[in-house]
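User: structure tokens for this one?
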Amino acid sequence: MRETAYTIEAMRLEDIPEVLPLEREAFGQMAWHAGDFEAAIASKCDFPLVIRTTGLAGYAVLRIIAPEAEIENICVAPACRRSGVGEALMEEMLRLAAERDAKRIFLEVRAHNEPAKALYRKRGFVESYRRRNYYQGPTEDAIIMMKE
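Assistant:
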């Protein structure tokens, strides 16, 4: 992994137009809409983040309802993958969860997404169960992973 200079900050309403194309590209018909990000920004339980290098490198949304947390959304721009951006977002979400007394953290990932699963395993997540045919376009299982 090469070192990349980045900043992580809370997502703002002004970030949404920049986030949406990346969201659509990454998640297709399962993509969040502007209203989903607006609700996350307004929520007291959600922690939406953006990470920037020279431009938007990625974003994530963490929901914390202690003693549990869930990574609701995480995406890294294709040009920034394998540069440490995903790991930086994960570290920030783990820090926020610990700071707010979350004892367990959950996430779901497409069964075929090996790079994401490798990142999650590296951070201590283990497969908990599988939701058959959860994702659409294309239909695929979701792997639920958990970290205690």
